Amino acid sequence: MRRALVIAMTLAVAACRAEARDDYLGDKEPQRFGIGHTPTPAEVAALDIDVSPNGAGLPAGSGTPEQGATIYAAKCASCHGKNGEGMAPAYPQLVGGPKGVFNFASDYKIPRTIGNYWPYSTTLFDYIRRAMPLTAPGSLTADQTYALSAYLLNREGLLPAGATLDARSLPAIQMPARSHFVPDDRRGSTGGPKVR
Amino acid sequence: MAETTSSISRRKLITGAAVAAGGVLLTNLPGADAQQVTKVPAPPPASPVAPDDPTKVPGAPTTAVGERSPFVHPQRAPVGEITGTSLTPLQDLTGTITPSDLHFTRIHAGIPTIDPTKHKLLIHGLVDRPVEFSVDDLKRFPAVTRVHFVECSGNGRAAYRTPKPEMTPQQVDGMTSNSEWTGVPLATLFREAGVQTAAKWFLAEGGDASLLDRSIPVSKGHDDALVVWGQNGEPLRPEQGFPIRLLLPGYEGNANVKWLRRIKLGAEPFMTRWETSKYTDPLPGDKIRMFSFEMDAKSIITSPAYPERLTGPGWWPIRGLAWSGRGRITRVDVSTDGGKTWLAAELLTALTNKAHVRFEHMWQWNGNESLIMSRATDDQGYVQPTMAQLKAVRGPGTDYHFNSIRAWRVARDGVVTFEANT
């Protein structure tokens, strides 16, 4: 009885709405609203700057550690130090962390640098290109970014002197820390003595 | 002993805040001689003058924009300029909503000035229809309004690594804030673009000078992620992402990308600097945890807390905040004897999903030295761990996700100081 009344009332209300509004198109929300515009390929390309671990997104161009050393001295050393040692606490150390040491959980003072902490080489190119130098982000050419990546990887012993870094060779570099990364396993923990 | 409070100088407090924030202090850029300068908040003005009897003189006229009482001076503790942090003064808040101008901030290349009529959000990658939305476009979609906290996963780092008795709630945990957000579910925009089944991750990128970018599981986008433009009844503040930001309820603050300009769907995570070099958690056994998005349940007593002083034995309210990134807080227990015995606190506010909850426990202080602490439990059955439990599992050198039980020591003279080791 009650249910029948409610249905009748609902129908009446729906009818009212339909009649009162000449713009009424039905009140079931669509899967798509058709709002927004389709970007041109050029509009997408202008923003599509990310680089993936498999090298997708890397531009044409190349650079060597030697070229990178010159650019580093001119554009990076003022903040990250002459030898990439950084200036605590503001400017991170980039290279020179202890090699083959991964027990970072034992002491937060163990320097975590590109060579002992970064799991993917492509991250270096991506980050430098998008964000560095801090006061002039986006000002580096592709060649300069390859050269700087080459310089920093060479300083970490991950790229030989004289080597050319480009879209093929950069993603091929295996980073020592890679195998130490594990996915988040905290979900389902009840915390307390069982915290993960 | 009563001197403790007053003898701790303003400078010392500020330094504590700087360390707590782990922020980058930049002035005179660029250059090797860049100064490490901490910006000192303006001291509150000298005591305001109030008439002896306000009922006998007309007051001030109305104004276009209201101000706080001249007797009230909540302040964030800003550190650094281009890359910096400011901490919410948790001890000054009431209820659960953080006033927008006191919401904590973390910036990596300054706060951009963005013309909302020019700002766009591009969705592309593994979608059937790449699409670009203006801010006005986004506001045409059916909107939702929800209350959620945002907490930096670095919150509590100083308390974990270098605790000091002279730490305020703001210095211990000031990188959590709670707001009412308005925006469109990301799921709606995903349908609009036609996200393909092969898409498992999306890259969210901000439109500031750091172009900060994070990889997020697509499942979060289908679940409760929002693209928001409103905060606490008004448009987002510039420092919170004006005109639009990503809001990922319960996820670490950094992933809630501000000034959102691009979302790219992909099959794999993109492995940005922000999910590899940073926001990863070293663990014992030479392991490093990554994509640790969810914020574990946590609580902190915000009063009594340093630098308060109880004026004498008697009834005192113990008040604080609790929250969980995995769901609802179901209970908060309070101990006044260093964790030997626990009593359920009153939960004063709605038990909102992934939001701050205000708790209170009326305590009859007998005047003896006491160690007071709070412990949160959420609807996943997760109980906030002690510092000893957390450290044993994560190691002293771990980074991020510092949610151990926090304690305050109340000395016989009523002086309250911070105690991290629980």
Characterise this structure:
The complex is a heterodimer of chains A (196) and B (422). Chain A is mainly alpha-helical and 196 residues long. Chain A contains eight helices and three strands; from the N terminus they run H-H-E-H-H-H-H-H-E-H-E. In chain A, strands 1-2 form a two-stranded antiparallel sheet. Chain A is globular. The two termini of chain A are 55 Å apart. Chain B has 422 residues and is an alpha+beta fold. Among the domains of chain B are: 120-286, Sulfite Oxidase, Chain A, domain 2; 298-419, Immunoglobulin-like. Chain B has a five-stranded mixed β-sheet with strand order 4-3-12-7-8. In chain B, strands 5, 6, 9, 10 and 11 form a five-stranded antiparallel β-sheet that branches. Chain B has a five-stranded antiparallel β-sheet with strand order 18-17-21-22-23, with no helix packed on it. The two termini of chain B are 23 Å apart. In chain B, 54% of the residues are buried. Residues 1-39 of chain B have low confidence and may be disordered. Classes of the chains: A mainly alpha (196), B alpha+beta (422). Strand 3 (181-183) of chain A pairs parallel with strand 14 (287-290) of chain B, so a sheet runs across the interface.
Descriptive tags:
heterodimer, A: 196 residues, mainly alpha, Cytochrome Bc1 Complex, Chain D, domain 2, 2 domains, two-stranded antiparallel ribbon, 3 strands, globular, disordered N terminus, B: 422 residues, alpha+beta, Sulfite Oxidase, Chain A, domain 2, Immunoglobulin-like, five-stranded mixed sheet, five-stranded antiparallel sheet, 8 helices
